[in-house]
Amino acid sequence: MAEVLWAPWRMEYIQREKGTSCIFCDFASAPREAYRAKLVLVVQEHALVCLNRYPFAACHVLVAPHRHLADLGALAEDEYGAMMQLVRVAVARVQRATGAEGVNVGLNLGRAAGAGIADHLHAHVVPRWTGDSNFMPVIADARVMPEYLDTSWQHLLSSFADVPGEHPAE
Questions:
Q1: On the chain, which terminus has fewer CB atoms closer than 10 Å, C or N?
Q2: Per-residue pLDDT tens over the stretch 69-107
Q3: What residues contact 71, with CB distance under 8 A and at least 6 apart?
Q4: Is residue 15 within 8 Å of residue 136, measured between CB atoms?
Q5: Residue 153: which residues within 8 A CB-CB, separation 6 or more?
C-alpha cells in the first residue's frame, strides 16, 4: 500500500481566487507595511524582489520589473538594467544567506515555457545544494520543503536590508 504524502499548502494554491489582478503589480504598489504578508524583500524604482509563495526550494526568490509586460525585449534599457542588476544582487544575497552551493537563475517566457504568471515578466533565483533533488516530485508529485515561507522571508530579510530601495516597515 502506498504511503500518503501530505502537501496541504497546495490546497491554498488550488482553491485561491484567480483574479485578474497581477501579483507583481500589486507588490510594486503595496505599502511597506504589507511587504511581509506579501513576502516582498525590496522594491526599487524599476524592479522588486519577493519570495516565491510556491517555491522549488527554500529561499526561492523572484525578481520582477514594475511595468506589467511579458516581453523581455519590451523593457526599456533602464528597466532591463535595473532588473538584471537586481537579479545579480539577489543571487549573491541568497547564496550568502543560505550557503547555497549553486543557484539556478531563469526566465520562463510564455506559458508554453512554464511561466505560471506569463503576463508579467519575472526571473527566478533558486538556491541549490548537492543532493537537494530527490524522487518526491517525480513519483509523488510532492515537494519536500525544509523551511516555512515566513522563516525563509525572515532568513533573507537582513541580507537584502542594505540593497537600495524600499524595505518592509519594522
A1: N
A2: 999 999 999 999 999 999 999 999 999 999 999 999 999
A3: 109, 121
A4: no
A5: 36, 39, 41, 51
